[in-house]
Amino acid sequence: MARLDITKKLAVLADAAKYDASCASSGAKPRKEPVKAGGIGSITGEGICHSYAPDGRCISLLKLLLTNHCIYDCLYCVNRVSSDVQRARFTPEEVVQLTLDFYRRNYIEGLFLSSGIIRSPDYTMEQLVRVAQLLREEHGFRGYIHLKTIPDADPNLIEQAGRFADRLSINVELPKASSLEKLAPQKQASTIRKAMGGLRLRLDEAEDERRRSRRAPAFAPAGQSTQMIVGADGERDSDILESSATLYSGYKLKRVYYSAYSPIPGSSQGLPARKPPLMREHRLYQADWLYRYYGFAMDEVLGATDGGMLDLDLDPKLAWALRNRQRFPIDVNTAPREELLRVPGLGVRSVDRIIDIRRLTDLRLDDIAKLTRSAKTLRSFVTALDWTPGASLDGAHLAAAVKRPAEQLSLF
Amino acid sequence: MREVVLRAPDDYEGWRDAARALAEARVPPEAVVWRAAADAPDLFVSEAAAAPSDGPSRSLRVPRRFADLAPLVACHGDPERFAFLYRILCRLQDEPRLLDITTDEDVFRIEMMAKSVRRDRHKMTAFVRFREVAVEGAPPAYLAWFEPEHHILALTAPFFVDRFRAMLWTIVTPEARASWDGAALHFGPGGSPDEVPAEDATEEHWRTYYVNIFNPARLKVDAMKREMPVKYWKNLPEASLIAPLIRSAVSSEARMVATPQVTVPKRAAAIVARTEEARAARDAPPPAAVSGAMGGNGLDALRREALACTRCDLHKFATQTVFGEGLSTADLVFVGEQPGDKEDLAGKPFIGPAGALFDRALGEAGIDRTRAYVTNAVKHFKFEPRGKRRIHKKPGVGEINACHHWLEEELKILRPKLTIALGASAIRSLTGQSASVLSSRGTVLTSALAGPVFVTVHPSFLLRLPDEASQRTEYARFVEDLRAAKALAANADGGGLQATGTLL
Q1: What is the pLDDT of residues B413-461, one digit of tens each?
Q2: Which of B169, B195, B221 is the endpoint of a domain?
Q3: Does residue B365 surpass a pLDDT of 70?
Q4: Strand blocks (E) in B11-78
Q5: Which helix (H) or strand (E) holds B186?
Q6: Which Gene3D superfamilies match (chain A) (predicted)?
Q7: For chains A and B, what is the number of CB pairs under 8 angstroms?
Q8: What class is the A6-226 domain?
């Protein structure tokens, strides 16, 4: 095989990394001062998207695979061993150089490094850790580092990865163990879960140590995240969301990323060769938000699904409200925060604003309209100083009135 | 009419000093004209501080929120910004809670202006692109041309200082420039894009990255434009790629969908086989020699078998099977209910808060945990996810029965002198019947499975007690129970244990 130059390798290994949805550079504690003279980088805590691709996704980190050679044969993955895709491999030093070159020009917040499995999980993990170590120790790099963590790797390697990285992630890949068995025969749901559980214990421990002493070494201060592929194996939204609730509650994940299964060149038979279900992905994120920020139990969210699927035409909060009309209207001037969070059209910020303002003055419908972009939907579910929704809440066509057609475009 | 001319378009301090003096003197907003030097015909320093008073002077108060918003709004591009801020300052003297009323027109406007400045600042931190300039015999310099919407250069420059402290850099904007010489930040006059080199070799890598990280199957142009407005594109090296990428997206996607795989690499099958072999070797049981402490007599084999247990649905959500642990020749076997949060994560029984209490009580009762065996009636954690926590749920009879198999096999191997049932689920599994813990506590039941079973409470019962007094009493009782169990087991050396309790 001819040796590839850096540009060619970059093309192959960025292309191979694009199916990973995660891009966030947020969640880390802000840091400014370089550790050593000549060091570079800072973290603001809020994350910065330095560019956007025409797929609407943020480019915050240099997202690369160290190599797309892989000894596993996961059917949904473009890099599986049986795929005839072009292969490439970076040396750790090459990734370090690209990261620094990009960072110095303010293209990126840092590096997100993943890899195909080569030789063995331990060997691969060592290579990933090596890149992070070079960046931190040789170059005083203080930017963001996200390392993909290989669940079968030796715990010592994961410990080292946590020393250098801001965030670690282990992909659960598919919501059901049975799908994983079918589509990723070399991966085991139990191993993945155990690795995440171990990571959570380690994160808790590191947090405790930091609380006792500020000098205790940090361990992945931006926590752990994961990704699930949506639409590769006929799983239902309820499978996915139940799985997410398990992951959030058990492993304190910062994020579960949902990645609509995207057709891959030369895709394996038996996988859907169609446009990725982007609207479905969007609804899943909305449902995920309800669980994490709006005080919904996952059972409640799932109560508003049909046959375990979220309504593509309705955001899940509205779908829930339409099925629980007896709980409305809610009085914006008196209802407690938990109740306000249930109102379709009110986000967490608008709710907090309402609570601030109503201490001083009673709110009218117009006032609320200034706080939200969905005033039209909202009015059916609230009462205000000068407003009661009247019969509209019971109207059979309420659903039709607030329903907007889903914007899922077809292929052509 | 008074006129105040400020030194620069973002001269917040100048505005503050002048506004303070004017407001103290009760000069009404409509009597002042504000200008920044850049828009002013002549430069002169404001005389406002010495302006004659329009009434008895007053001392000013502003809420913290105003102090946060005003420096941002002072950088806004709106020529009315200083007059507007002064009007709010005056209103705040009569309406101190004004800023909490987000529905007020002025408040709405000040928030929107601050938001727009914040966004511009954020976009500047995102979209400045440095180009490297080689300098003979010195470290390279980095230059960038940027066109902000508002007067935010001074506001944003500290971000670049923090991040690129070790680099020498200059950001040129039409209105002003900021330079970092490695030690200090300097501001100077505005410039033009020609001052920045036309290219940088790394830009080709960046453009290669941009093209390849894009997924044509997910085209969402509006989402991109919302976050990366077109007005910024002219200074982004990657932006010229956008149009061709969009044009070719549909055909590239079709290619992704329609391209069948031509060949499977020849080595694939061999690699897969090798991988499977390596895994099998790793997961295989260790050679026959089984050590004492972690359970010989087949306990290890049993544990391995239990790891794959799917006898009930609990395995679907739990992290792992938490099997019993301890000495295979233990006299005492403790049976709890089920693993908790921490046990589930670590794969070991009784290591969470209840486990810590249990250990303490064992110690006080003179029982060495390492000489005992500790297990649970149910070996997977049953819980209800609630936000970021898992709430313990009592296992049902179905789960206890499904898991009974493992306890039965454990006890067959262990054959202890005495089994201690900690709580109702353990009684249920050991005797097959429901019994009230409180009424059978301290007694010995017989179990076809385990022989004599001594009953006491589960340590987590002690953790749930509401007041300290009952916690102390109950803890002492628990320790007493453990002592009694220890004594019973010791006496059992002579003859068999007699049942002292009956199931109700």
Answers
A1: 999 999 999 999 999 999 998 888 988 999 999 888 888 999 999 999 9
A2: B195
A3: yes
A4: 32-36
A5: strand B185-189
A6: Aldolase class I, Photosystem II 12 kDa extrinsic protein
A7: 260
A8: alpha beta
